[in-house]
Write a structure and sequence with these properties.
Blueprint: E1 2-8, H1 17-31, E2 34-41, H2 50-60, E3 67-71, H3 81-93, E4 96-100, H4 107-117, H5 126-137, E5 149-151, E6 157-159, H6 161-175, H7 181-190, H8 203-211, E7 218-221, E8 224-227, H9 236-248, E9 267-269, E10 276-286, E11 292-302, H10 303-308, E12 316-317, H11 318-334, H12 346-379, H13 385-414, H14 419-435, H15 442-452, E13 453-459, E14 462-467
Parallel strand pairs: 1-2, 1-3, 3-4, 9-13
Antiparallel strand pairs: 5-6, 7-8, 10-11, 11-12, 13-14
Amino acid sequence: MRAVGYFRETARGGQTLAEQNKAFLDFCDIQGFEVAGTFADAPSSNGHAPGFRQLVTFLRERDRGLVVVVVPSIQSLGHDLRDAAVRIFQLEGLGAQVTPIDGGKDAETALMAAWTTDGANGRLSDRVRAAMRRKAVKGEVLGRPPYGYKVGARRRLELVPEEAVVVRYIFRLYLNENMGIRLIARRLNEEALKTRRGANWSMVSIRDILRNRAYLGTYSRFNVHVSGTHPSLVSPDDFHLVQDRLNARRTSFSPRVSSQFLLSGIAQCGYCGNKLIGVSRKQSWKRQTGETVSNSYRYYQCESRTNQSICGYHTRRADVLEGSVRDELARMFAEGGCGFPQAGDGAAVLAEQRAEAERLRSRVRSIDRRLESYIDAASRGRITRDKMRKLSVQAAADRLATEDAVEAVERRLDEHVSAAERKRGREQAVRQLLEGWETLAFDQRQSTLRDVIARIEVHDDGVAVVLRP
């Protein structure tokens, strides 16, 4: 079995990188591992870990086979226990096995043991949780109030009359007129009713309202349910009927399989301007012979049409749309590249990139909290280890993809080059992308597209590619 070592030089003493490397070589000799390489990071206060990123690149290369990542301890993977947990599941998601030299345990077992005994380093403060739970017991509002209410005296929920009318309308449409959540969203949007933020209604926002127990007059936070704290908007009987109907319409309880789409984040509807989202569907049917066959379909559709039923955009098969983008890039490049349309002026693009970087960093923090909650739930026995592992690996993979996007944005922000150099770099990136479209790894193709393309405007009869300046 092949093994690679990952070491971190701490700023507070401990083993030097040379000592960690010797311990790694001795460990591989005892275990009979073939040494395939080592990666290391120096102390850093800004969160960057180029050695770990190099390790990720190494594991992403094809035909690596099973690789064991050997570390001195799980704590050496990150600057704290949560950071180490993220990296354990990122490495496992890339197909590697993480083995700490100390302790004689696999990385996950060592992580759970450390999390249980030293949880304050890896999860939200229990004291903060307890203080917020005490407020919840009193019915005091924590966070943003649900639609239909505002925070009033003594931090209790009070009705917002114009919003309360919409909430009752939604329940009536669903329960009395037997409308589905997609049709309810369409009805509200057609009647020019807006959300609190002035946006259109979506399937998600309608479903959240139909599921929210706050409309029973019950305040719920941190597993605390306090009834009678504020005026109700729906009767218990009607609320329970709605829940029964929602549950009955769930036809599949199988876990959702995440599917990657090449144009996510840069493709937008040419009719309403909203983003296109990737959708996977599996269909089964019987042939005349009685044989049951099935097939999976992947396509892009407008988020406005999917969630709000307000756009006339027609769906496009994923492979067809991605092929159209490739062909359009090839056509534009063949014409010399000089005529490539560009997005905005330099200052506007710079502001856009800074906002994008902050949005992505916020997403990283959100993913960290989600992964933390999975480990915390497993350490408290609320979910199984297998479920924790599955959820955590997926969250860590999402974080790794987001880190890639952050890195790409930061790279663009750090580029202080002339317009001519930007043009040459863009043309080189497009050339490499077109030549290696079928052979480049998915993340490489997607990263290059995001580096080069500002947006892709999609119509039923074609696409318009707008490049970054």
